[in-house]
Amino acid sequence: MKAFQTCLAALLLACSATIRAQEGGDSLADYAYQPTQGPRNRVVHYLKSNLDGSKRLLLSIHFATPLKLEVLKVEADGQYLALVAAELDARTLTETQMRSYNRLEQGAPRLQMALKAEGPRRLVAGVAKAQLPVQLSHLPAHLYNFDLSGFNATLPHLKNPRRDFEVGIIDPDFDFLKTRFKPEGGVQEGGFVDKGSASFRYLGEERLDEVPCLKYEVGGPAFRGIQGWLWVNAKDRLIERFEHALPDNPDWQSFRLSRIASRPMDAAGWARFKAATVRRAMDLRDQE
Asked: How many CB atoms within 10 Å of residue 215?
């Protein structure tokens, strides 16, 4: 009888572990979302590049509300533009709605990808007529290829930014999209992949270009154990700089994100900013 009870207990423990693995982990207890906290009607400008400063791109994030943002990307000195609109779910602090566009400079933006949630741990990316699902192993989860913009929006909501924390990372499988993707449609497993958890180990306070920051060491399975660095502005708790040897896009060799400016901007001001950027890009095209 005792042997049977021991066997049953072991079986239940194994089943419980399996269920937990299927459900995934989370670190949501590290956050306390408050609608009044975080940027609102504000634009923050970043310079994206390789670690050596090459291949520069201007990235402007407009926060309409703390969890609703648009990102305008300006490449090749203003000639090529892309726009990403995203919303994060207040319960999971994960990007659950996203639409990305390119070719703004041609006057007819093209939808590249539309991401939506199908449950708390399943996201589906629509690309052309295909559906690319991904199951999230850790919440919150963020797209690295979104230049950590969604991750950036969650940082002001950490209960205690002076301690270690983790997030999940997902990304397109660019090799899959290049060699195996079928744009004609259907559900295609493997187009988006869960990279696992990323760890941020708090190292202390540090001044970065005279700006008081909180510094973290970056690592974990999502980054293949390769070390990187994150500096968070101590005042508004947004990214001041991020550096990692792993690029978030195959067009780059590494990844540096450096904050260069920030100012208030309401929806009307953001619309004018986007329109002026598009006009300049179209003028540059006309001069070619």
From this structure: 19
Spatial separation of the C-alpha atoms in residues 86 and 131, rounded to whole Å: 18
CA 113, 114, 119, 120 dihedral sign is: positive
Which tokens hold the place of 51?
A: 């670690």
pLDDT in tens, 85-116: 999 999 999 999 999 999 999 888 999 999 99
**Residue 25 phi, psi (nearest 5):** -105, 175
Per-position b or e across 143-174, b if 16+ CB within 10 A of its CB: bbbbbbbbbbbbbbbbeebeeebbbbbbbbbe
By the 10 Å C-beta count (0-12 exposed, 13-18 middle, 19+ buried), 220 is classed as buried
CB-CB neighbours of 70 under 10 Å: 19
Query: Taking a C-beta distance cutoff of 8 angstroms, is the pair 277, 83 a contact?
Result: no
Cα–Cα distance measured from residue 142 to residue 139, given in angstroms and rounded to the nearest whole number: 9
CB 104: neighbour CB atoms within 10 A?
21
Question: Please, are residues 58 and 281 in contact by the beta-carbon 8 Å criterion?
Answer: no
Q: How many CB atoms lie within 10 A of CB 260?
A: 11
Nearest to 130 by CA among 208, 89, 190: 190
Residue 207 to residue 202: CA distance in whole angstroms: 15
Q: What digits encode the pLDDT tens for the residues 138-186? A: 999 999 999 999 999 999 999 999 999 999 999 999 999 999 999 988 9
